[in-house]
Amino acid sequence: MKSYHLYMGSILRNLLLITLGSIIVGLGLKAIALPQEFITGGVSGLGLLSYYGTGWATPGIWNFIINVPIFIVGWVFVSRRFFLYSLYGMVALSLSIDLINLQIPIHDPILAVLAAGTLIGAGAGITLHSLGSQGGTDIIAIILHQKFSLRLGSVYLTFNLVLFTCSFSVLTTDLVLYSFALTFVISNVLDYVVTIFNQRKMVLIISKAADDIADTINTRLKRGSTFINGVGAFSKQPRKIILTVVHNHQLKRLEEIIFTSDPDAFMITENTFNVLGKGFSKRKIY
């Protein structure tokens, strides 16, 4: 019974994330990007470009049509669960684009780029915290991320370079450049939202008090650490190097622990893209 409730809770959580993300993306598209005649990149941008170029159907219908062959690829290369969640996401986004009838009156195109980019990037990022997507380039990006560890935002940016090259035949040069700036904002906001809960600090500590520092990290911060055996290049003496990963808010406390124990310690801090394991994030399987 407990496992059944966890399973149903997982389904509801995923559907909620996909729905919320789709509504936010639809709002950015319909209320800001479409009135400005921007294209947003990705399949939704290709749908907008097709709509501008032909005047046929609606952006939502174009989004649905273009997604069909991409979903076939998703069915083959990812998983049935991902396919079904993404199918729901595609329908939710297409409906959001067609049903939202709100226009946010932004007259400065630069402000429109920032506002639309933030909304669309945040919505897409929220959706990708689920086990599905909104279809389109999300599917292609996730396949490439799984196969080659390519960052999602980088995949979108590359796809959009090709899309914008083609859009010069339909849109004015100013609109193409504004649209490219829009996708740059979307890509960066997307990467931030996707990794916001996974970014941690990896710290390397070189100190004569390595044992005391490692014990204090364990007891006060409740974080593990690993000793790496090293040799000083100048002194030729063996040294213990501490490797640990902490939450962002623990970094200042870690600094105090290190330099209270050894004022001459050496501390190296690195941003991490993703940390998987006990006490941090779980591996995401689509």
Outline the structure in words.
This protein is α+β, with helices and mostly antiparallel strands and 286 residues long. The protein folds into two domains: 2-195, no CATH class; 201-271, Alpha-Beta Plaits. Helices cover 62% and strands 10% of the residues. It contains ten helices and four strands; from the N terminus they run ααααααααβαββαβ. It has helices at residues 2-33, 42-54, 59-77, 80-99, 109-127, 137-148, 152-167, 173-195, 210-220, 251-261, and strands at residues 201-206, 225-231, 238-246, 266-271. A four-stranded antiparallel beta sheet has the order 2-3-1-4, covered by helices on one side. A hairpin with a 6-residue loop joins strand 2 (225-231) and strand 3. Helix 7 runs antiparallel to helix 8 (173-195). The radius of gyration is 23 Å and the shape is elongated.
Number of distinct helices: 10
| Relative helix content | 55-70%
Alpha-carbon Rg, integer = 23 Å
What value does the average pLDDT take?
82
Q: Give the terminus-to-terminus CA distance.
A: 24 Å
Uncertain residue ranges: none
Structural class: alpha+beta
Protein traits:
286 residues, alpha+beta, Alpha-Beta Plaits, 2 domains, four-stranded antiparallel β-sheet, 10% strand, elongated
What's this entry about, in short?
With 286 residues, the chain is α+β, with helices and mostly antiparallel strands. The protein has helices at residues 2-33, 42-54, 59-77, 80-99, 109-127, 137-148, 152-167, 173-195, 210-220, 251-261, and strands at residues 201-206, 225-231, 238-246, 266-271.
